[in-house]
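Sequence only, no structure available. Ideas?
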Amino acid sequence: MYKLVLLRHGESLWNQENRFTGWTDVALSSKGIEEAQNAARLLVQKGFSFDVAYTSFLKRAVKTLWLVLEEMDLMWLPVYKTWSLNERHYGGLQGLNKKETEQKYGKSKVLLWRRSFDTLPPTQLGNDLPSSFPTKDHPKDHRYKDLRSQKIPTGESLKNTMERVLPYWEREIVPKIQEGKRILLVAHGNSIRSLVKDLDSLSNEEILKVNIPTGSPLMYTLDQDLKPISRSYLD
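Reply:
I predicted one. Tokens follow.
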């Protein structure tokens, strides 16, 4: 049997403000810092330790991982960062308040943009992106310097998110699990939902009902074929 822990980052400042965040690099709120530390204490209490950690390029996930490793006295752990585990890119919705967007465009349309498996968000609504934010025409952010411009998204569905998360999972993480490494993966609501959909063999309709809470460790026990034996939130 193998153990895998998935952890969505702690609450960010834009989670707190009820904004679409996506690839915008927003810091943790004070509550988010506390959530990360509490998650670490819970992992220690439950007897967990890890050999390898994975996270995204976005600081709300990176900071959450740092806080967890510090609290668990595992700062020495190998950590792999990748854009493939970034949050879903919300396109023109990024920076917009979710409630205000519903009031302007209608609840059903915003629900379709947020929760449909393969519907892309609009690309021109938001105006709060920082000047360094990467686009196909202006890949300014240095962390994405090795990413071909045609791979930098301007908006993604959950389906698009899965198309980058799952190849990385299969190529980089699965072999480590099969070696017996204990894996901690700290990422985002939709990158984790991508893995949950695949691991639990959920339909396109079933995954729409799945929400990943911030700062709550999700533990999988997997068999030799990496099929779930059990899954549960530790808290």
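Residues 222 and 228 are 4 Å apart (CA to CA).
Hope that gets you unstuck.
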